[in-house]
Design a protein that fits this description.
The protein is mostly helical and 400 residues long. Helix content is 83%, strand content 0%. The protein contains 14 helices and no strands. Helix 1 runs parallel beside helix 6, helix 3 packs parallel to helix 5 and helix 6 packs across helix 10. The longest helix has 48 residues. The radius of gyration is 20 Å and the shape is globular.
Length: 400
């Protein structure tokens, strides 16, 4: 059993790798535009994707906590494979909406279960909860971001042949998730089997928002700082085109962004340990402000390089805030808690994504990036600073 659980960690890393191996992503905006979609249509499609996740995200995490994380991963992997296979035949807005709904359901099934499996595997193996969990979260973020980078390089090369080649390879990578999910060993965890034993969603929400001010601020910060770097991810490819970058360079640029995320995820805990949680959080809050305004005001390669700061923020968010959340929630509803933060992120994008797409289409990228910079300032004042104050309060209590 111990050997199988040790193997679990590598399998979950592999699953995260293939789930993030998106050869389509670095060229997805030109791919959609080839199908006749406008930039506003593309943001609308992503809002459809987000809606599918909003509907299924929290229930899928609850499903994983009740019926097992491996079961959730198996179901999600099958749907994931079907979705990308269908993309081979989707060639208009209606069929692409079906594709987005399918992969949205898959993403909701996969999102919280893998992280919960990783934590419970480590707990069963009796690793040091403070240090070992931090390491595996950092490694998980590193594998995901590295996979995104390698997928970007592959996508940039494949697009030189055709978009069809990109989609075929993407379909094959999607089915690898199912192969790896079949190899996972479910670690023992406290299942909510009997109706009387199951923790109700209302009790979970009370724990997340009312038990601890620090936990509440973390739950609010994770989705909003994910959103702060997500809008610009869909503006990057039009931004590169506006700077005169050729399509052949898109894969290399996306790889560079993924490498930045991977490095930030890998060294995020080092930054936190050396400089403290407060300075790490302040850095995370300031990076989107500099990144958005820098892209709006600078031109050419300077604007592209400044935009990389947004992906440093993403990497820090993936490890520092996510680990802070998982350390503060019980095992029996850890998958639900992770799915809930993803639910909040997607729900926020439903309202803001189409607006950003409309602004980019009607007012241009410079105006849109300036507006996102102003939004980042508001986010820093009303979300990050209260989180920093909560951390300082805890530190003062410990010192006393």
């Amino acid at each position: 059993m111990q050997n199988k659980l040790h193997r679990n960690i590598s399998i979950i890393y592999g699953l995260a790798f293939f789930q993030s191996f998106m050869v389509i992503v670095p060229v997805i905006v030109p791919f959609f535009m080839e199908k006749g979609l406008s930039l506003a249509d593309i943001f609308y499609l992503q809002a459809v994707f987000a809606t599918a996740i909003v509907v299924f995200e929290a229930p899928s995490g609850y499903f994983a906590d009740v019926f097992g994380r491996k079961t959730a991963l198996l179901i999600g992997s099958v749907i994931h494979g079907i979705g990308y296979f269908y993309l081979n035949f989707a060639d208009d807005l209606a069929s692409l909406i079906i594709f987005e709904i399918t992969v949205g359901i898959a993403a909701s099934m996969l999102s919280g279960a893998d992280l919960a499996l990783l934590y419970d595997t480590q707990k069963t193996l009796q690793g040091d909860e403070e240090i070992e969990h931090s390491k595996v979260i950092a490694h998980l973020g590193f594998f995901r971001s590295s996979s995104e980078g390698l997928g970007a390089l592959a996508g940039g090369a494949l697009v030189l042949w055709s978009f069809d080649a990109v989609v075929i390879v993407q379909s094959a990578a999607a089915w690898m998730c199912l192969v790896l999910a079949l190899l996972i060993t479910e670690p023992p965890f406290k299942k909510m089997k009997e109706e009387s034993e199951r923790i109700q969603i209302s009790a979970i929400l009370r724990h997340l928002f009312m038990s601890d001010p620090l936990l509440r601020n973390i739950v609010i910060a994770i989705p909003l700082y994910s959103l702060a770097t997500f809008h610009v991810a869909w503006l990057m490819q039009p931004y590169w085109e506006a700077q005169g970058i050729s399509l052949a360079m898109f894969g290399l640029l996306w790889f560079s962004q993924s490498l930045v995320v991977a490095a930030a995820a890998k060294f995020g805990f080092v930054i936190e340990r050396r400089h403290g949680a407060v300075l790490s959080l302040l850095l995370m809050g300031l990076l989107p402000i500099v990144g958005h305004f820098g892209m709006a005001w600078a031109q050419g390669w300077l604007g592209i390089l400044i935009g990389m700061l947004l992906f440093v923020c993403r990497g820090l968010n993936q490890v520092i805030l996510v680990n802070a959340l998982n350390r503060r929630v019980p095992s029996e509803f850890r998958a639900t808690a992770n799915s809930f933060t993803s639910f909040l992120f997607r729900f926020s994008f439903i309202g803001t994504g189409p607006v950003v797409g409309y602004l980019a289409e009607s007012q241009g990228l410079e105006v849109t990036l300036n507006i996102l910079g102003i939004a980042s300032i508001l986010l820093f004042v009303f979300v990050m600073l209260p989180l920093v104050q909560s951390v300082k309060a805890i530190q003062q209590q410990l010192a006393a």
